[in-house]
Amino acid sequence: MNIRTARPADAAAIAAIWNVIIRDTLITFTTKERTEATLAAHISERQGAFWVAEEAGKVLGFVTYGPFRTGPGYATTAEHTLILAPEGRGRGLGRALMHKAMEHAAAHGIHVMVAGISAANPGAVAFHAALGFEQTGKLPQVGRKSGQWLDLIFMQKTLPSS
């Protein structure tokens, strides 16, 4: 397994992983699938803050982070996205990707990392808790997908100063 910086050429593999989550689960509230072009641009914009886990040349998951909110007061707070393909789960890839993102974020002045997690994804809550994230909020019924109201759980972790 290799963790490396994502490249625009990874957009198709990332879209294939992400779009299944968008289409078939309540893990994300969005219903709009990602296009390769949009993802390639997103990877380019976040160059240095977007990584993939790959094995034998196949992308098995990714992590990226970016601004939590706009405005200078939030400049040291970031929110991340972590998604794994089914064959990448339960192998430590998520943990390795998150450590890479948190290490990079701390080295670049990020003080707090935020996770916005669908309450329909208790595995992600447990995963983040195991990484030292604490639940700091719950917004009931702020999302709607597949005819269901969804709660959003916020978790955060203060990163070590670099």
UniProtKB/TrEMBL annotation:
Domain N-acetyltransferase stretches: 1-160
Keyword Transferase in annotation: yes
SUPFAM superfamilies (alphabetical): Acyl-CoA N-acyltransferases (Nat)
Keyword Transferase listed: yes
Alphabetical UniProt keywords: Acyltransferase, Transferase
UniProt name for this protein: N-acetyltransferase family protein
